[in-house]
Specification:
The complex is a heterodimer of chains A (171) and B (264).
Chain A (H helix, E strand, L loop, with lengths): L1 H6 L3 H23 L2 H18 L10 H17 L24 H16 L3 H13 L3 H8 L3 H19 L2
Chain B lengths: L9 H8 L4 H11 L3 H15 L12 H13 L17 H7 L1 H54 L4 E7 L6 E8 L4 E7 L7 E9 L5 E6 L5 E8 L6 E10 L10 E6 L2
Antiparallel strand pairs in B: 1-2, 1-8, 2-3, 3-6, 4-5, 4-7, 7-8
The chains are: A mainly alpha (171), B alpha+beta (264).
Chain lengths: 171, 264
């Protein structure tokens, strides 16, 4: 188990996890930040945080790639909103259960195709609202202010988008 | 348990998505803190929403990130944290303390004040250290980029491809240094700042098959300075191109081509 080896200060285990998940994390960081240098700084920080706090992560209770994705997104949104980028340290306790295999590049590629296809099947407005929430960290009210749509419409749109996505992805 | 259960499972998904406004978030957080069943549902929702990350175009990090990370493991000493030493007053000293309280109380107050001042100083020093680490990391990144650029240029099978502006004939807007065997490329040049809702996207067009995204960038100043990108190794490229795409990039080019550079 790679996390257990990181706890034992095995650098090759961290390198192996980096090879497995860096591309996945780099993609979402670049999509949110649109700034390669900032994305790479956060990517390095996340793996360094994993190195320092691996002993507090319980693989039995949650998914490591899922946790990494949540941390990466939170850090990027914080940076985007000029919040303290170091925030997120406490999220080591965040429990994430991912309903998909993310353990290797092939599985990640398959999931990428499925997610893209599921998103493309959504009506344009629903997809846009979902992307504003996930990739720009906007709340219902902020999306309504950005798009000029009524708050109730935005709420219905997002709820419907999430329901459709779950049904199409069977998650 | 704090507050009622959220009435809809989707509430957890919307929380994980970050779409709930502050008042709605607080209600869920307060409830989940004391309800294991809902904490489990929230964990599952976090995972469901996390896979939305796969809607982002694939962007591989430059090799320098891993190198810096592995160096960081060696260079940063693990902080052990200062441990407070308990102050113990021996039983026999209690009487002495009783007699000398008028002296000890001001001394203790002074020590407490000194401790607070030292702590504040320490906080300030830690901030300065963090700034210095950021500067060092930035400089290290620049050094790594320069090293990679030099190594890439030294390889015999590396090609340098000028990218021609499409609006202004016979004008080179950027250049790509590419090594197919290593799957490495560096882009350098000048472009006008992209509009707020747009990003520039660099494409490798292979001899066979669809264009492959080599990265999305949004040069604020117009300057692309040694942007290093990783693409699948072993591809025979026909040309490189930069297009203007919706913010965040697209799986395939949809916008106007800004720069194009065929490999001669």
């Amino acid at each position: 188990m790679l996390v257990a080896r990181i706890v034992q200060r095995d650098e090759s285990a961290l390198a192996a996890l980096y090879d497995r998940y860096a591309g996945m994390l780099s993609s979402v960081l670049n999509r949110i930040l649109r700034d390669t240098q900032a994305a790479e700084e956060i990517l390095q920080d996340i793996f360094y945080q994993l190195w320092r706090t691996a002993s507090r992560f319980d693989p039995e209770r949650g998914s490591l790639p899922g946790w990494l994705l949540v941390i990466a997104r939170n850090r990027a949104i914080s940076r985007l909103r000029r919040h303290n980028p170091a925030a997120g340290e406490e999220l080591v306790e965040t429990l994430v259960i991912v309903p998909a295999n993310l353990e290797n590049a092939v599985a990640q590629q398959q999931l990428l195709s499925k997610v893209k296809s599921a998103l493309e099947s959504l009506p344009k407005e629903q997809r846009a609202a979902l992307e504003l929430a996930y990739f720009e960290g906007l709340t219902h009210s902020e999306i309504a202010a950005r798009t000029g749509d009524p708050l109730g419409t935005v709420k219905t749109r997002l709820r419907t988008a999430v329901e459709t996505l779950k049904r199409n992805l069977q998650i | 348990m704090s507050g009622p259960h959220p009435t809809r499972l989707d509430d957890f998904d919307l929380y994980a998505l970050g779409a709930l406004d502050a008042d709605e978030r607080v209600l869920i957080e307060a409830h989940v803190a004391s309800c294991p069943d809902c904490a489990q549902k929230l964990a599952e929702a976090q995972g469901r929403m996390a896979i939305l990350a796969f809607a982002a175009p694939r962007v591989e990090p430059s090799p320098g990130v891993k190198e810096r990370l592995m160096r960081q493991l060696h260079s940063t000493a693990e902080g052990s944290g200062a441990s407070a030493v308990p102050r113990v007053i021996p039983e026999s000293a209690a009487g002495i303390f009783g007699r000398w309280w008028a002296v000890l109380v001001p001394v203790a107050s002074a020590l407490a004040l000194a401790t607070i001042l030292l702590w504040l100083h320490n906080v300030q020093l830690e901030r300065q250290l963090a700034d210095l680490r950021d500067t060092l990391r930035h400089q290290q990144a620049q050094l790594d980029e320069a090293r990679h650029m030099a190594a890439l240029l030294a390889m015999r099978d590396t090609v340098v491809v000028p990218l021609w502006e499409q609006k202004t004939p016979n004008t080179v807007g950027a250049r790509v240094v590419y090594n197919a065997r290593e799957g490495m490329m560096v882009c350098d040049g000048m472009l006008p700042p992209a509009p707020a809702d747009k990003s520039y996207q660099l494409w490798l067009v292979p001899m066979n098959g669809a264009p492959i995204s080599a990265g999305v960038f949004n040069p604020k100043s117009g300057q692309m300075s040694h942007m290093m990108m990783k693409v699948p190794a072993g591809l025979t490229a026909k040309e490189f191109a930069v297009s203007l795409e919706p913010a965040g990039g697209m799986p395939q080019p949809t916008g106007p081509m800004v720069l194009v550079g065929p490999i001669s």
